[in-house]
Structures are given as C-alpha cells and as structure tokens.
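Lay summary. Proteins are chains of building blocks that fold into shapes, and those shapes determine what they do. In this project we predict the shape from the chain. Here is one chain we studied, written as its sequence of building blocks.
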Amino acid sequence: MSATHTPPTDNVLISRLYHSMLLIRRVEEHICDVYTSDAIKSPVHLSIGQESIASGLCDALKSDDMVSNTYRCHATHIAKGGDLNQMMAELYGKSGGCARGKAGSMHLIDMPKGVMGASAVVGTTIPVAAGFAQAMKWDAMNGGSKRVIMAICGDGATEEGCYAETLNYAALKKLPMVFVVENNGFAIHTPIHRRQPNWNLRARIETYGIPTQHVADGDVFAVRDAAIKAVEAARSGQGPQFIECATYRWMEHVGPTDDHDHGPYRDHAEYAKWKENDQIARLEKMLGDKAADVKAKVEAELKASIEFALASPYPDNSELYDYTYAA
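And here is the predicted shape, written in a compact code that computers can read:
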C-alpha cells in the first residue's frame, strides 16, 4: 500500500481519525513542554510523527478487542480509548493514575478499554498477548464473543527470541492475533540494515505461514484498511495476521527533543519527506473549516486531563509497599 491509496470521502471517519491523531500529538506536545520542569519524572518515548499508525490500527478494533503495547505506548493507549485523565495523572506520578502513579509513562494500562499493560522491557508484551489470544480462542469455543488482540511492537523487538517463539506458537494454534510492527527503522539509534542481513520483515514472517501486509508511507487510511482486513481474518478463525507499518518518529528515541543534529544516524532528507507526509496536516486540509471544532474538542480534553492530574494527590507514603512481594 502506498500514497496512491484512495482516501475516503466520509467526513465522520475523517473527523474521527483526525481527532485521534491530533489528541495524541497535543498530549505529547504538552509532555515536551513540561518535561524539563520535572513534573513528569519517568522517561518518555514519544510517537510524534507516528500517530497515524496507532489511530489507523485501533479504529479497526471493537471495544472488547485488545491491544498490547511497547514502552512507546501513549499513542496506542489514546487511540484505543484509554482514560486520558488517568494516563496524564500517571505521567505526573499521581494517585489518580492508571497505576496509582507508581508506574509512569512506560507502563500504561486500561483493561476496561482493552489496553493491556505496557512494559519497559523490549518484546516482553508479545508472548503475554499470545496468552490473551489463547484465552480469547477458548472463550469463543465455549460460546463467548470472537475477540482479537493486536500485538504492537517496534522493529527492534522483532530481533528478540520471544518474538519468533510467539509467532510460531500463534501460527501453530491459529490464535486470533494481529502482529503489527511500527517500523521506524532505528531500534534506538541503529538503522535496520546494520542489524539484519536480510531486513525484509514480511519474508521472515511468511515462513510461519502467516499472511502479511505492508503499509509503506504511514497513510492513515491504508493503515486502517490493512488493519480491518487483518482483524477480520483473525476473528474468523484464520489464525494470526501480520502488518508492517513504515513510519518515522520526529523526536529522539527517549525524551522530548529533536535529535537530528546530535549524531549521524538520522538523514535530514528522510525526515523532511516524512514531515511533508504528516497525516494530521493532511486530514486537517481534507476537513477544511470543520477541523476547528475537532481542534476545540481536543484542546478541551487535554486541558481537562491536565487539571485532573494536577488536582490528584501524590500516593500516600503508606502505600509504599503495596503490591510488592517477597518469597
């Protein structure tokens, strides 16, 4: 799929995707603004520039479907409908957060909205997602609804042993999973061609008998269409599916700044190409005057979440040892 993908004319869909992407962008821009004040104490991995992937993917899911996250999890959390107030409070380390302020940016969770807990350790959520998929399959076999889990990771996670093991198990058991790789090409600072002798991810995945798709340019509508096709196949019992989504993060790997002049691993021409392809600006142009209402709604949601976080107290000292265990 490429830039030739025909965009829809449905303004409801366009507005919904624009709202999702813009909310992600504005939340993370706020994080950039306040991070140096130490109000947010945990490391932050931002998806500015990558918003179309999370928004397009999650729009294809039902409310009772699930996603598993990487530590770059703000975008997917928001796109799947995770509670923004609780997310912001968690970033601020407040007790109103989704983990009562004890987990921070890299460990967001909202199970009622289908957001599996994220992890700071690369690749570790992938086999856990397979466990959820196995439970979903058993539930459906016993008369429950046919649910799907979307296991999202970055290109670096595909080099972890648990990724290959989970692909094999999911294919063997025909689990209702959609594996998605947000391929921004770097795995921190090392380009994929310096890490893999054959960096055709789809070819590797196809050896497990898993159908694959590729979206080359971050087109939010192409991402959504690929996700709909994959989710429907997984839900209908055809086993796991795979989507590779090329994308590009504008900010540094971890932190709130632009690092294009901080080292040789970035290419300015590539950066310019992806910025020109910004899907938020594209959909804003498509909406015309109607974009103003969406912007106002997003700003109101952002403001409310910040106020909630600021008003929420810090966890009490008496909670220090809650949920900790020793053998």
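What the prediction tells us: Strands lie at 66-68, 149-154, 177-183, 212-215, 241-246.
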